[in-house]
Amino acid sequence: MKLSFSAEDEQFRQEVATWLQQNLTGEFAKLRFRGGPGDEHMYPEERKRWEQKLAEGGWTCIGWPTEYGGRGCSIEQQVIFNEEYARAGAPGHVGHIGEGLAGPTIIAFGSEEQKQKYLPGIVAGTELWCQGYSEPGAGSDLANVKTRARFDEEKGKWIINGQKVWTSLAHESDYIFVIARTDPDSVAHKGLGFFLMKMDQPGIDVRGIEQITGTCEFNEVFFDDAECDAGDIVGAPGDGWKVAMGLLGFERGVSTLGQQMQFQNELNQVIEIARRNGAAKNPAIRQRLAKAHTELKIMRYNSMRMLSGQGGSDGSLQKEALIYKLFWATWHRTMGELAMDVLGPESQVLEGGPYELSRLQAMYLFVRSDTIYGGTNEIQKNIIAERGLGMPKEPRVAAK
Question: 164 near 134, Cβ under 8 Å?
Answer without folding.
Answer: yes
